[in-house]
Amino acid sequence: MKRLVLLRHGQSAWNKENRFTGWTDVPLSEAGVEEARKAGRDMLNAGFHFKVAYTSFLKRAIKTCWLALEEMDRMYIPVYTSWRLNEKHYGMLTGLNKAETAEKYGDEQVLLWRRGYAIAPPAIDPENEFSPYLDAKYSAIPKEQIPLTESLKDTIERIIPYWESDIRPALFREGEVLVAAHGNSLRGIVKYLKNMSEEEILELNLVTGIPYVFEFDDEGKLLRDYFLADDEELRKQMAAVASQGKK
Q1: Of 40, 64, 68, 237, which sits most exposed with the smallest number of CB within 10 A?
Q2: Whole-model pTM?
């Protein structure tokens, strides 16, 4: 059996302020640090022994990965970073408060921008302070590949080639893989693995710091998926995530 764990980063400073973050490189909050450490303890208690991990270019995911592995006493394993695992780019919404944006544009429009499949927010100005064009982390990436806004569809299209070329082979070579990333980049992987419809993925809300486990047989067939969390508490936290973009 092969086991994949998808871990959304712990609460970030902008999660705490209910702001659209996207590619902006904000740190974990104090609560987010503890969420990451707890995730590591939960994975250790569940018997995981990762030999490789993957994460994005953004510090909130990288730090979550490090803290979780530290709790598991596995900081020595290779950790690969890729911009392809970055959060969805929120375009001109970047930095805005989600509830205030819903007041301005309406709950339905903000839901489509946040969770819709093929609808991207308006693009950010290339010279905006939050533009990835101005970030040295992406200087080696061809500019035509760097987004100024994205839909979930766009996000999936940049992630899945990396899943197929790097993460999936590692999973079937090593047996267990950790991917510490972001709400929408992980939703993209989930949609792909479970062959979910556009309507189904709209309803999926991933909670910060809770490991999401996928088990496969040796031929790659998905056997089951589950969260390392109490069901009732998980429902409450998912509902809280869903309500972030409402007036």
Answers
A1: 237
A2: 0.93
